[in-house]
Amino acid sequence: MTKLPKGEKNKFSGLGRGLGALLNNEATNSLLRETDNQNESSSYKTNDDNNQRKESLFEKNKVYNVNINFVMPNENQPRKFFDKIKLEELANSIKNNGIIQPILVTKVTKDKYKIIAGERRWRAARLLGLKEVPILIRELTESEVLEQALIENIQRQDLNAIEEAEALTRLMDEHKLTQEEVSARVGKSRSSIANTLRLLSLPQSVQSLVIQDDLSAGHARALVAIKNEELQLSLAEEAINKDLSVRDIEKKIKKALTPPKEIDAQSEAYRLSLQEIEDLLTKSLGTKVQLREKNNKGRIVISYYSADDRERILEILENNNN
């Protein structure tokens, strides 16, 4: 090893500092000049590659504070509805605690970044009039942005059920994915994916109630069983106005979907046969006859209009009995 020039102290004991901080310029230059050129070339190439990889990893996870106007919302953001009250609550939290989690973005141009996840934080920061926001940069394609935004929002439960269903549909269409494949990517069961997608069959009037958080996803899923749009909306509004549980709505739906009992049709036929009996007795006795029946019990009412009429009817009955 080359000795240091006279008069210089050995500073290698200062571990943890860079080479330039440990050696003066003259000593450093002396070391570099006396290093074998071939070994220097190969070793520095390897070191450069390692440094680039480390720097790349470092930059990927580095948080930058940028001008808030350089950050723009994603037009394909799965989340469409932002509750004003909850946004104000988030703004108050940021005012007291700052933005704890950086906004995830992808770079569009030199000074423009598109939000992947964290639009609520960005909107709340704008409400507060903040000049800068912390960002974390990811290099993603447009389709990867959609997928990442969907997964981020689902995992944080930031989407309402309709927004989630629309995002899942788009993810399946653009990436040609099956429900099973989507299930694996977002970490939800296939049945959960299928139930969420069915919500898009509801009329827009009912979907809007879910988006505005007036109607729960559970109530909405129950209403999918009905095909009558007017009845769907009617039950949805009843659930909201009367604060009905999902179970209450399911009972009402079951009642609406249950066809009339077969016994009802039989009862109608039976009522017709009672009328026929009345007609037969009226004709046989020559007077008005009425049958009154309930639960297979009842009475026969025979009308007469004089004592002679009564005796006549009794005579007919006695003769028929003989």
UniProtKB/TrEMBL annotation:
Q: Which CDD domains match?
A: SPO0J_N (cd16393)
Location of the region described as Disordered in the Swiss-Prot/TrEMBL record: 34-54
One GO molecular function term of this record is: DNA binding
* Residue ranges of every copy of the HTH cro/C1-type domain listed in the record: 168-195
**InterPro entries the UniProt entry points to:** Chromosome_partition/occlusion (IPR050336), Cro/C1-type_HTH (IPR001387), HTH_ParB/Spo0J (IPR041468), ParB/RepB/Spo0J (IPR004437), ParB/Sulfiredoxin_sf (IPR036086), ParB_dimer_C (IPR057240), ParB_N (IPR003115)
What highest taxon heads this organism's lineage? Bacteria
Q: Where in the cell is it found?
A: Cytoplasm, Nucleoid
Where does the protein principally reside?
Answer: cytoplasm
Compositional bias segments (type: Polar residues): 34-45
Q: Which GO terms describe its cellular component?
A: chromosome; nucleoid
In the record, biological process GO terms are:
chromosome segregation; positive regulation of sporulation resulting in formation of a cellular spore
What keywords sit in the KW lines? Answer: Chromosome partition, DNA-binding
- Entry's family note: Belongs to the ParB family.
Q: What is this protein called?
A: Chromosome partitioning protein ParB
What lineage does UniProt assign to this protein's organism? Bacteria, Bacillati, Bacillota, Clostridia, Eubacteriales
